[in-house]
Amino acid sequence: MFGKLILCYQRVACLLKKVVQEIERRISTQAEHIRNQNNLIKIREDKYHSRIRVLETLANTLNEETQMVMNQLQHLKTEKSIIEEKKKHAEEDVAKLRKEKENSDKIISELNQNLEAMKMSYNEQFHQLGQKLKVLTDAAGNYHSVLEENRRLYNEVQELKGNIRVYCRIRPYLSGENKKQSTIYYIGENGELILANPTKQGKDGQRVFNFNKVFGPTATQEEVFLDTRPLIQSILDGYNVCIFAYGQTGSGKTYTMTGPDSSSETDWGVNYRALNDLFQISQTRIETFIYEVGVQMVEVYNEQVRDLLANDSTQKRLGIMTTSLPNGLAVPDASMHTVQSTLDVLELMGIGQTNRAVSATSLNERSSRSHSILTVHVQGMDLKTGATLRGSLHLVDLAGSERIERSEVIGERLKEAQHINKSLSALGDVIFALSQKNTHVPYRNSKLTQVLQSSLGGHAKTLMFVHINPDVGSYSETLSTLKFAERVSGVELGAARSQKEGKDVRDLMEQVTSLKDTIAKKDEEIEQLKLKAFISRSPSIKNERNSNNFLRYNSFSPARTSTLAGTMQHKQRTSTGKLLNNNNEAARKSENCSEIGDHFEYGSQKSVDDNKNQDTFMQLKHTGGISAQASADIELLGFGDEDAEEHLSDISDGVLSMGTETDGSLGSVVEFSLFPEQKKSSEAPKVKMPKIPASIPKPPPKKTAHSTAFLPKTNNALRPPTSLTMPRSRKSTSQVTMSSPARPPRRWQ
Ligand SMILES: Nc1ncnc2c1ncn2[C@@H]1O[C@H](COP(=O)(O)OP(=O)(O)OP(=O)(O)O)[C@@H](O)[C@H]1O
Predict the structure, then answer these.
(1) 289, 381 contact by CB (below 8 A)
(2) Does residue 52 belong to any structural domain of this protein?
(3) Residue 33 domain flag
(4) What's the domain count of the chain?
(5) Cβ 250 under 6 angstroms from ligand 1
């Protein structure tokens, strides 16, 4: 039994073992399965993790995008509200505009009605205007001929005043000079000058001189230039003008011609002012004339002519044409430089002055021992007729006029002084011969007179500024200078001649009065034409017709001034002179000396009238009542500026000489029929008479407007005809070197 039990146990154990084995097998299988499952799960887990990360990334991106969208949404909301606001405003505006449109429609309909009515009236006015325009067109041709006639008469009056004018200027004392004693005893307002000999007392020591005008020490540069101004216009009309500065060294020649070194506008000398005027007047004629301006500058030193603007430094001697070339050039080989503004000319003058001083031992010495001649050549073409005209301006700074004996010079200086004496006396002879209307004019006696031949005599106008140093130490120089000037002016004082000359003067005055009447008539014609033109040009002028302005303008009657000026032959014994030495005897003398026809009342009335007219003219000009051309014409006619007064003063001023043409004169080379050459008449009466004092006091000089107009940058009226070259070594040539794109380079013809 036990064995059986054991057997049974063994069997059970075996069975159990098998069961355990089976279980173990199954467990290991299960474990294997579980491991596989775990691996799978891990793999899946990893997969899910990565998916989760992707999803997280996506979620983040989505969040950002959502945020952006939210922002945009916010922005859109803001914009929407703005747009809604705008829309609201726009709707309001539209409503307003609708209202306005309704109003406008109403107004337009009213205006249309008015327009219709106005059209009707305009048609009527146009019809009337057309008729007036026809009258004006007919008159226009006449207007130009009247203008030309006026220009001719203007120059005739200038000629009557004397083509040779001598102005004396007394310079003030300089520091260091004895101011107590002066050689100048009396300066009259009409050109009288009494020189007192410091070594002789009383009447014996006094000498009376008479010139066109005497400028005292206090005369301003502007006053000195005032009488030169009308001559500048003549240059543009085809005349030759020569302006000299004469006097001993240090008497003020350079001061008058150029001005002091540091020139302010008020100190500008004749050169600056003349050139400025020249370019300004050419501008006012821009619609009728084209001007070309060329400049030459030469020096006459020891009877040799040298180009001061030459390129080469050799300074070769130049030849002079003894008969004038068609182009009017006396020194054709001197370089010609085309200029377009005052600045251009001034630059050239600076270069010339530098060249002049190059070989000098001392600038001052040399400058006063040679004659420098700056020549401004003007060629003008009348745009209407195509006619050309030529004029020239010589600005001559003469050498100092010291006498040899006094300066006690030897050697080279003596030679210079002899040449200067010779040329100055030759100049005096020429001008004297011209003023005396001699048949022979000794141009050939010096290089100076040869160079200036075409600008001395004939229709040329000569102006000499004679300079005086009032210092007693210069008495003998002053006396010889004044004698020279007296000779040049061709006027001598003397009671014996006054009867005979009185008749000449009366004849002359009659001529002047008749000429003045003619001018007045022409002026009136022009005036009427202008008024017609203004009325027809603008209906607004019609309104002005009823205004004071128009009446004042209209009231300017040259005929009236003519009538009044006609009284100038009435002489009144009034002393207008200025006594330098204040004593009674001198006062009496001055009364005797200045038997002057004064018309202060008329003078002041005229000034007032002129000022009124000037004002009115300016007003009309500014309101556009006068066209540019018309205003230029007005200025040309003398209504618009100081020249108006010059018309009268020219006529009333002392008459030095009546015409100056001689056989030796070449006159200006004028091709324009407006300025016919006058034939020389050998029977022409020699006029030698005392100067008639001006009977019409001039209004106080007006200020010239230089501030902005000076140094015009470009001048359309002045076209450069040629390419230029300048002495490069000395100065920048940028200002003066120019070439015209419009025209090929050509020589000055
Ligand atoms: N009207 C004037 N007012 C003030 N100063 C003057 C006047 N005229 C001349 N002067 C002065 O007198 C001096 C001599 O004048 P300026 O040089 O013009 O004489 P000049 O005749 O040209 O001499 P030169 O023959 O040597 O060239 C200068 O200092 C100048 O400034």
Answers:
(1) yes
(2) yes
(3) yes
(4) 1
(5) yes
